[in-house]
Predict the structure.
Amino acid sequence: MEKYEQIDISGDVGLRVRGHSVTELFVNAAEGMGELITDTSLIDVKEEKEVALTSDGTEGLLIQWLNELIFLFDTHGFIGKIFRVDITGGQGSGGKGQGDRGRDEVKLTAKISGGLFDQGVNESRLLLKAATYHDLSIRQVGSYWEAEVIFDI
Amino acid sequence: MTIEGLHRIDRDRLEVPKGYKSGMRTNGIIYVDEALEKELEKDAIDQVANVATLPGIVGSSLAMPDIHTGYGFSIGGVAAFDLKEGIISPGGVGYDINCGVRLLRTTLVREEVLPKIKELIEGFYRDIPTGVGSKGKLRLDSAEHRKVLLRGARWVVEQGFGEKEDLDHTESHGCIEGADPELISEKAYERGKAQLGTLGSGNHFTEVQYVDEVYDEKIANSLGLFRNQITVMIHTGSRGFGHQVCTDFIEVMQKAVQKYGIELPDRELACTPFNSPEARDYLAAMRAAANFAWANRQLIMHWVKESFMNIFRTGPKALGMGLIYDVAHNIAKIEDHTVGGREVKLVVHRKGATRAFPPGHPELPDVYKHVGQPVIIPGDMGRASFVLIGTERGMKESFGSTCHGAGRLMSRHQAIKRAKGRSIWREMQDLGITVRATGRGTLAEEMPEAYKDVANVVDVVHSAGLSKKVAKLRPLGVIKG
């Protein structure tokens, strides 16, 4: 199972992400998105950020999570490398259900270890404006979860 | 042969009939000739049809010839909604609120600038923060940030970066009324704090050009344009500030859709009735972001002038530097239009479309009242850009709107694949164009063939009468993010 791959879309960029659980899916999405911005292997882990989010569905929570990481990068230059994510409620706890038009409240808390991007040192890849709801999907495929997210660049 | 399900109205227009998708309240009209029709994406056609399902839409769901697939609304989309029955949608504006273009003139000619073009482009690159993770030279404190949101380019001019005339030469005078800084999230403030006066990345650029062709001498003369003249074009928007405002309000709209029971064919079309508190809040926040963008372009223009001053060792007045016009191409505005013989106020969404008001329109500054509104259309970095002028026909047919650029043809991957083994920098150099870019992949992704030929796009809006060609500009040097 590949953790993530890029989706080809005219003008923008997408990620197809896989994980054995919804939590792993969120971690892999964060890692994949970091790689769209820069080569994260060159970022030194120096600080930790905490994030707490609530949404009325797993899809919305994924968008909020990725937009939170875009905010941390665009505001502070922070790139996460190690993501400790905890999801409660909705599919995150039970792994039931398809898609998620169901409106159960889902909560995410995360501790993110990472470091600061330096334009003079680190490679500039893409400037992500936002993770979007466009063609967004989260579904169970056999033994793993798969999500597709498109970013506005 | 016309795409199945569509109907060709005339040489420049394709109709997406009301029955193309269920729930359409009106038809769609896509401005493409047969050549551009071949490049139409199925998803983009569906998006034109989806917009036609939204409540309170007035007239047709329109798309300009630079149409391509966007989020919810297609890029190149124009849609007007009734203020009582209609909606407002952040998806109809885009994440980069008031992304737009401004064009400066000089009295320099090509031969004077060519020997110094490399120096000039290096100067831009040094003076204008560009690319992923770049920070502006200004750090706004909270009080200043609020002033930027309320006063836009006006605030920048008050700080000594520019002339009063610049404001007359900017859409909405560089400041749209009705912005409310109280409706901006802490996150948007944080994200915008260090980004005023930054270019960004992707397709944003600052470019030195020369006037290659003049199509209408009289109008060109009124705009201060002449053959061989040097111009500078700046393409950027509201940066992370605007992106955060859009991100925040997409979440608000997801809830509004449920609250007001709006049926949507696509979640990214999330919207709210125009007569709702959510709409009032979005409109006031979007206006704040629009003002941030006008301030941003005004500030970047100041640094462009400084680069010219440093290299030509004289002042901007001696170089004849002045703003021709600044246009927004991602915005929603309340405007007066005539529909079925009646004067009505509508909320017009332009997403990747440019306002193009005709001569005599009350919103135009005195200097352009007799010719109409200048329209600035950026092309790709290797071919050309255009100056057009608004027309009466555009006012009637497309709510005073026209195209906004070339429109993308290739995906990033296709472009990178196509550029493999080639030096795009060298190819540009061979064409006589000096390029400086921050991002490793930017040049490949932004190479000319990744875009439609802007000349074909502009020919359609000219032929359809939505706006009129005035001049063609060719690039000499460009910085990109």
User: Anything to note?
Assistant: DSSP finds three helices and seven strands in chain A.
